TrEMBL record, chain A:
Keywords: Cell membrane, Coated pit, Endocytosis, Membrane, Protein transport, Transport
A single GO cellular-component term on record: AP-2 adaptor complex
GO biological process entries: clathrin-dependent endocytosis; habituation; intracellular protein transport; psychomotor behavior
Coiled coil (residue ranges): none
Pfam family, one: Clat_adaptor_s
Protein name: AP complex subunit sigma
Assembly information from the UniProt record: Adaptor protein complex 2 (AP-2) is a heterotetramer composed of two large adaptins (alpha-type subunit AP2A1 or AP2A2 and beta-type subunit AP2B1), a medium adaptin (mu-type subunit AP2M1) and a small adaptin (sigma-type subunit AP2S1). Interacts with CCDC32; the interaction is direct and mediates association of CCDC32 with adaptor protein complex 2 (AP-2).
TM annotation in the entry: none
Family, per entry: Belongs to the adaptor complexes small subunit family.
Domain AP complex mu/sigma subunit: 6-145
From TrEMBL, chain B:
Pfam annotation, one family: Adaptin_N
Membrane topology: Peripheral membrane protein
Keyword entries, A-Z: Cytoplasmic vesicle, Golgi apparatus, Membrane, Protein transport, Transport
Name by which UniProt lists this protein: AP-1 complex subunit gamma
Annotated GO CC locations: AP-1 adaptor complex
Domain GAE: 627-740
Recorded family membership: Belongs to the adaptor complexes large subunit family.
Main location: membrane
Gene Ontology biological process terms in this record: intracellular protein transport; vesicle-mediated transport
Keyword Protein transport appears in the UniProt entry: yes
InterPro entries: Adaptor_Complx_Large_Subunit, AP1_complex_gsu, ARM-like, ARM-type_fold, Clathrin/coatomer_adapt-like_N, Clathrin_a/b/g-adaptin_app_Ig, Clathrin_app_Ig-like_sf, GAE_dom
């Protein structure tokens, strides 16, 4: 029985600094650190000639590079690559709308807000909300509560 | 103790640190301050401090002293504090920490909070890091929320339920009725969650499968609505209505339809509709189509539908998007292994695509063995339509994978004895058996179950090919040569080989007869040379111009001459004299130019048979149209003119050809070119065709220059010409700033 779901979501820059790490599976701290380093090593050597999918341990990583940031989702080998690729893009478009032409610094200085966006769109290792309008509406409402 | 700075300020300070050591110092100071703050009973900046700690944690520093603070903040009544508390819980707490149990009560309370935002925080945290005990405690709450009126909460509750079911499968029963009723929701988010929940329930428990099969019509209806409905702005991605939901439903249908005829029937129409109506020009559509194909292949679908699915995969192979080609290749590989019939009908397309994509397959092939296996599978199922170049292609691959020789020959032998219809397979198999027969006879091979093969078996197999009316003349040629090669690799049955060879000396087929007669001669008059002639072939280098005249070891290469002459051989325009020598080898790839450097002034190094061989091997590298490249005159003085022509342009290299001609009354002698390029460019000058330029345009001197660079914009060259004209020595310089691009690039 395959437990198909997202294992983790990572946003890293080219230098390997983590901008977001959302884990949907149980890992120790040092395991997490190791995973982060491995993902970085695997993803940064690839260029435009490669696909956006790479095998990783016994999972696979769907990733996409936006400017200096790599958005990586680690999923099960039986998952639909293209759907998750669209999922990443959906997520980035929301970030873009929310932060008004988002750049890496936005994600750094507002990291806890980024987590909120992630939690609106992904939950329990699955894609949760796909309507950008709905997510943005929700985010703005939350912002007013602060 | 330094006063606590707000989060943004701290981030700025940390980023300002110039070294790792400096950063560590800043962080240590900040952590000390935060720790002190935590110890204070009451202060307004608690959430800021925890936020700072979380940032530090993200950078990789330890932060476990913040765990209790998370618990405290979660219990707070202020939203801003709760929110950071929950975030901290998700980041710092996990099942193993005792502190996680402490928040169970808070979560329970918050699940019934009046504000849906608070409820959502609690749901989120539970779904993210809820341990088994927590889930058990809180499952009833979640179940209640699944029936709540607010769709925002229902969405989250559904996925929370998914998490609970994953942690404690027995609790799945609790959610089954609600999951069912959620399917009638209109809200996409809720539907999405419900479908995922049902998927999870079905995967965990076969009883649920039976129950949810009854929902197939409902699911089919939902899909139909999605596919046929008009533009819905909220969930639209590139013209597809909520592709994520479509993909999930398709996946659920796959699980429900597997091994069940009734369910599969019910979804046949829908799958056909989705397959034909979905626009695959963007990734979203392709994602849906891909999932559809997977579903079709997995359930008990009718053959027409399967054909449709394979068609779609075939189309994907031609797609511009590398990602799509990749997934279709991997799927096809799986399908070829399990479902030959569906694939058979589309041999042509698939094999064509595979042939084109050979370079990509190579790049993606996790190993040479995978690559060989894949091509073998294709040959076995669709060998009849394989292009002839695949045979030498595969052979070259096999020779290169020396550790796999034993494995490969065993596999091919087995394929050969089971079926000799597919000619390409037969040819490759014969070639390998001839080459590696000794490995085959040894019997053991690590990666394959051992099978004892005797010399007689092998010879029987080859003779069957030789005698069968199904074999083409080419294949029979392969078989005969293989039999001959075995004469040096086996010990007992050499006489049998001798008799076979002599029989075919009077064969009607001229090609076979010629071979047999020659081999006969090898047995008789040239027996002393036989071992040397028939020894193992060296690894065939794709770019090699290793064929030399009259070497008997070239003989086995005759097989390569059989295939049809090449498409699109890269030949330089005859007007361009520089490559007239290289032209015979039919290759203008730079590596080849390198090896021919020494021979470019000696025209006798090439011969037509080897060029033929080269053509066959090299057109694999892709045909380039032989259209003339424009040439530009870069220098003209006193009757001497120098023309420049660019060929072979890639992103990082260019081959430039200089042609010097002389329109004066007397010859120009001692003609010599020197070139200089900027530092970022590398230059390699080939030997010129000569140093005498005949008068009145009777001849030219040509010289090729190879340039490689990282940035084409920097490409410049300065050329100095030295020569003697009418008794005087001259020297001229010309700067070339722009290079004409070839006509066909």
């Amino acid at each position: 029985m395959t437990c198909t779901k997202i294992r983790f979501i990572l946003i890293q820059n080219r230098a390997g600094k983590t901008r977001l790490a959302k884990w949907y599976m149980q890992f120790d701290d040092d395991e997490k650190q190791k995973l982060i380093e491995e993902v970085h090593a695997v993803v940064t050597v690839r260029d435009a000639k490669h696909t956006n999918f790479v095998e990783f341990r016994n999972f696979k990583i769907i990733y996409r590079r936006y400017a200096g940031l790599y958005f990586c989702i680690c999923v099960d080998v039986t998952d639909n690559n293209l759907a998750y690729l669209e999922g990443i893009h959906n997520f980035v478009e929301v970030l873009n709308e929310y932060f008004h032409n988002v750049c890496e610094l936005d994600l750094v200085f507002n990291f806890y807000k980024v987590y909120t966006v992630v939690d609106e769109m992904f939950l329990a290792g699955e894609i949760r909300e796909t309507s950008q309008t709905k997510v943005l509406k929700q985010l703005l409402m939350l912002q007013s509560l602060e | 103790m330094s006063p606590s700075v707000c989060l943004q300020e701290m981030i700025r300070v940390i980023r300002g640190a110039r070294t790792q050591g400096e950063e560590r110092g800043v962080i240590q100071r900040e952590c000390a301050a935060i720790r002190a703050q935590f110890r204070q009973a009451d202060n307004g900046g608690r959430s800021h401090n925890l936020a700072k700690l979380l940032y530090v944690h993200m950078l990789g520093y330890p932060a476990h002293f913040g765990q209790m603070e998370c618990v405290r903040l979660i219990a707070s009544s202020k939203y801003s504090e709760k929110r950071i508390g929950y975030l901290g819980a998700m980041m710092l707490l996990d099942e193993k920490q005792d502190a996680s149990l402490l928040i169970t009560n808070s979560i329970k309370n918050d699940l019934s909070h009046s504000s849906q935002h608070v409820q959502s925080l609690a749901l989120c945290t539970l779904a993210c890091m809820g341990s088994a005990e927590m889930c058990r405690d809180l499952a009833p709450e979640i179940e209640r929320l699944l029936k709540a009126s607010n769709s925002y909460i229902k969405k989250k509750a559904a996925l929370c339920a998914v998490h609970i079911v994953r942690k404690i499968p027995e609790l799945g029963e609790m959610f089954t009725p609600s999951a069912h009723s959620l399917l009638s929701e209109k809200n996409h988010g809720v539907l999405h969650g419900a479908v995922i929940l049902i998927t999870e329930l079905c995967e965990r428990n076969p009883d649920n499968l039976k129950q949810f099969r009854k929902s197939v019509p409902e699911l089919v209806q939902i899909m139909k609505n999605l596919v046929t409905s008009g533009y819905s702005p909220e969930h639209n991605v590139a013209g597809i209505s909520d592709p994520f939901l479509q993909v999930r439903i398709l996946r659920l249908l796959r699980i429900l339809g597997r091994n069940n005829d009734a369910a599969s029937d019910a979804m046949n129409d829908l799958l056909a509709q989705v397959a034909t109506n979905t626009d695959s020009s963007k990734t979203a559509g392709s994602a849906v189509l891909y999932e559809t194909v997977l579903t079709i292949m997995d359930i008990r679908s009718e053959s027409g539908l399967r054909v449709l699915a394979v068609n779609i995969l075939g189309r994907f192979l031609l797609n511009n998007d590398r990602n799509i080609r990749y997934i279709s290749m991997t799927s096809l590989q799986k399908i070829v292994q399990t479902d030959h019939t569906a694939v058979q009908r589309h041999r042509g397309t698939i094999v064509d695509c595979l042939k084109d994509q050979d370079a990509s397959v190579k790049r993606y092939a996790p190993s040479q063995r995978w690559h060989i296996d894949t091509i073998l599978h294709v040959l076995v199922t669709a060998g009849g339509d394989v292009r002839d170049e695949t045979v030498p292609n595969l052979i070259q691959l096999i020779t290169a994978a020396s550790e796999l020789h034993c494995y490969t020959v065993h596999k091919l032998y087995r394929a050969l004895i089971s079926d000799i219809v597919q000619q390409s397979l037969v040819q490759v198999a014969c070639w390998c058996i001839g080459e590696y027969g000794d490995l085959l006879l040894k019997g053991e091979c690590e990666e394959i179950t051992p099978m004892q093969v005797t010399e007689d078996d092998v010879l029987d197999a080859l003779e069957t090919v030789l005698q069968s009316h199904m074999s083409t003349p080419t294949s029979r040629g392969f078989a005969l040569t293989a039999i001959m090669k075995l004469s040096t690799r086996i010990t007992n049955n050499v006489d049998r080989i001798r008799s076979v060879v002599s029989i075919y000396g009077s064969c009607i087929d001229v090609e076979l007869q010629q071979r047999a007669v020659e081999y006969n001669a090898l047995f008789k008059k040239y027996d002393h040379m036989r071992a040397a002639v028939l020894e193992r072939m060296p690894v065939i280098d794709r770019n090699s111009s290793g064929q030399t005249n009259g070497d008997p070891s070239v003989e086995p290469m005759k097989e390569f001459n059989q295939p049809k002459p090449v498409q699109g051989v890269l030949i330089q325009e005859p007007a361009n004299q520089v490559c007239d020598l290289l032209d015979l080898l039919g290759d203008s790839n730079p590596p080849l130019l390198v090896t021919n450097d020494h021979t470019s002034t000696a025209p006798n190094s090439t011969n037509s048979t080897s060029s033929n061989v080269q053509d066959n091997l090299l057109d694999l590298l892709g045909g380039l149209e032989p259209t003339p490249a424009p040439s530009v005159t870069v220098f003209e003085k006193g009757g001497l003119s120098l023309k420049l022509q660019c060929d072979q342009q890639t992103e990082t290299s260019t081959t430039v050809t200089f042609t010097a001609s002389n329109s004066t009354q007397s010859d120009i002698t001692g003609f010599n070119l020197q070139a200089a390029v900027p530092k970022s460019v590398q230059l390699q000058m080939k030997a010129p065709s000569g140093d005498l330029i005949p008068a009145q345009g009777c001849g030219t001197v040509t010289q090729t220059v190879l340039l490689s660079y990282t940035n084409k914009a920097n490409l410049k060259m300065r050329v100095r010409l030295s020569y003697s004209s009418q008794g005087t020595a001259c020297q001229d310089m010309v700067q070339i700033d722009s290079f004409p691009s070839p006509a066909w690039s």
